């Protein structure tokens, strides 16, 4: 019986392969055969760990979300050892920049998430419910920073929550625009700064 | 030889069927066979009008964009017969509301566009270049309204253009959130109003 860590590594190896297949060829290309070949393991092993295609897809989606969340963990301002928390504007800019597909890894993740989004709307590979969770946590994070900046009331109110929805909708829309080639990464970051001007530093 | 209008109607009948197939089952389901069956015509007729699947998909995408553009034609403020143009804020709100998937038709169109977006990123069914055009025209429209509201300079400057990009990115992100069930239509409209507060009616 392999040790627990080996199981986790093996599952990770397979979901990583599944991410690459989806980023390259789309969700419908992610068959057990294609993913096993990409991972360099047997189809039987993929079946052993994930049972059905649905289990593999849900695990792969979760892995992408965890990577995204990890990006504003260690490196983001706010996680430093200093006693003084960084300014909310710096935290918000770091979160937004981390969400945009500005390098190859984030681009691949964003393509995979767009594929899951489209699939959840039109077939039974995954359901919208299975893809939720992450956006709610982000709305809370952004609303808390906006409230910290403004210091009004006992906690984030309706306006801070609507602004947080606006921040995340903008990030999602800019991501779509970058992937489709409608906007450059440079323009997207300028839009982010403009949004932050409106939200936390009104003239 | 059928009259010209018959050709246009027939092409429309086929692209309408293709839209329904994609909205229901995804882009990969839009085979000539499935679209012909949905339209109630022969596969040969679909081939006669569109040649290859690629031609059918590009024509279908264009039909969806034209429907969307048509929604802020006749009914939108700005098209009225009065001598006085409506306030820019009213125009912007009408454009944004028209872009969001708040009824069945617009939802179906948004699902089809999400399917095209994902497909353009991961396979050769269509290319990102073939899906462009519409967003640029919208950025110009929004920037012009913002400039009209603010009346600064000889035309929309860099700030108005960045704000216009922000408006359209927000609309795209809210659309994604509504389709995925992250936000309700009501919340999305409240976010739109909040954005307009920031852009054209600063406190």
Task: Give a verbal description of the structure.
2 copies of one chain form a homodimer. Chain A is mostly helical and 203 residues long. Chain A has a domain at 61-200: Orthogonal Bundle (Tetracycline Repressor, domain 2), CATH 1.10.357. In chain A, helix 2 (32-39) packs across helix 3 (43-50). The first copy, chain A, has helices at residues 4-25, 32-39, 43-50, 53-71, 88-99, 104-122, 134-150, 158-180, 185-200. Chain A contains 9 helices and no strands. The model of chain A is unreliable at 74-79 (pLDDT under 50). Chain A is elongated. At the A-B interface, helix 1, helix 6, helix 8 and helix 9 of A face helix 1, helix 6, helix 8 and helix 9 of B.
Largest sheet of chain A: none
Oligomeric form: homodimer
- Stated plainly, the CATH topology of the domain at 61-200 in chain A is called Tetracycline Repressor, domain 2
Average residue-wise pLDDT of chain A? 85
Instruction: Please give the CATH architecture of the domain at 61-200 in chain A.
Output: Orthogonal Bundle
Class of the domain at 61-200 in chain A in CATH?
A: Mainly Alpha
Order of helices and strands of chain A: HHHHHHHHH
List the helices and strands and how they pair.
The structure is a homodimer of 203-residue chains.
Chain A: H1 4-25, H2 32-39, H3 43-50, H4 53-71, H5 88-99, H6 104-122, H7 134-150, H8 158-180, H9 185-200
Helix pairs in contact in A: 1-2, 1-4, 1-6, 2-3, 3-4, 4-6, 5-7, 5-9, 7-8, 8-9
